[in-house]
Amino acid sequence: MLRYKGTIKISELQNYFSSSEKAVQTLFKELRRLRINNKPFKAIEKINTLYSGSQLFTLLLLFPVYAVKDVSHFTKSSLSQLLSCGKDVFYEFLNCPLFNWQKLSIHITKQLICRVEKHSCKSEKLPVRCLIADDTDLPKSGRCFEFLSRIYSHVTHSFNYGFKGLFLGYHDGKSFFGLDFSLHGEKGKDKEKPYGLTKKQAKKRYTGKRPGKSFGQQRINDYFKTKGRLQQNAQLQIL
Question: 27 lies in which domain range?
């Protein structure tokens, strides 16, 4: 699936974000309305007691708004003035295997869907509502990523090193909401080179350690499941 690169704004969005001040005010207003339980963050706060999990999570939500590409660019952005911390604080926060990021993502998205439906204009014709599943190539330039594999791109008809991203979204006939995702590799048919890697290449990959029953380990287990079966389980969980 090729990423859409169009820059034309929908007329509704142009009216909604008529100025930068109005956009920021609207954003913070909506953030305050999100119901986020702070209890799940306690597991992460045991790792870092200086900043609360809710503080770090709120800053992560603001990254796209302030054009912060990723965590490595945080210290050079204007957001760094809010918390005097380095990028390692965010890396530890995001890499904590004890937190159920999947559940949090679905919880927030469901709230957004309800808010959009509440304020949408009622039309005579019922909109098309459906779940959309799609897999996308996620190529990587390095060779030491954890669970890196050789994948085949049906778009470019070539092989690359990286992952297959399986995404599930909800479409209400007008808006699209991301619900869930998982990362997968392609083992291939060559038993001498599983996942398209030689023994030497596979040995150089990073190997992480996580508690056996942690949420992080559950996501690792998803990597080895078939995409069709995993997507069915995700749909049942959401519905």
Answer: 12-94
